[in-house]
Amino acid sequence: MTETRFYGGHFLLALPGMADTRFDHSVVALCVHDENGALGIAVGEEMEGVSFRELLESFDIDGSQVPDIPVLRGGPVEPRRGFVLHSLDWGGQDMVQVGDRWGLSGSLDILKAIAQGRGPSRYLVALGYAGWGAGQLEQEMTGDSWFLADGDPDLLFEIPTRRKWAAAYAAAGVDASHLVSGAGSA
What we know:
This protein is an alpha+beta fold. It has helices at residues 52-58, 108-115, 136-141, 153-158, 164-171, and strands spanning 10-14, 27-34, 37-42, 46-51, 70-73, 77-86, 96-98, 102-105, 123-133, 146-150. It has a single domain, classed as 3-Layer(aba) Sandwich (VC0467-like), CATH 3.40.1740.
């Protein structure tokens, strides 16, 4: 009998040549992974034309005191649903704690807390998520789609969005510039 491993708190890094082009060069912060499936937030692509302050204003929250950070394209599932990945120095209703790494919140209380200066010290805001049904991610991980890497919170929160993919590979000891798509044959 084989034991199933679950990878919440890790990063899924897209391998070159991944069949699903929506995830090209993706870094997915895997937040939930169990026998029922998996949920992650892609953190490697900024949405054009959407700012954090505008997002706050759409909920009638005054965002004038917060940095106008980019909103990330969190994944293709429910692209209008918002999520905040954040440091564990804040906890609110419905927060999912991802090991000792980070938290995931999707309720208005975290947006209000951030706008009022009492939110988490580090956070990323995303619309949408990546989701997998039971066994689906495990199947994808056996192919040429994903590389599993350590979910370092410093890399998650401190590395600029466009550099996360290469930085996450580098942290795993892999030079991303040497990666090629497909398997070779001799």
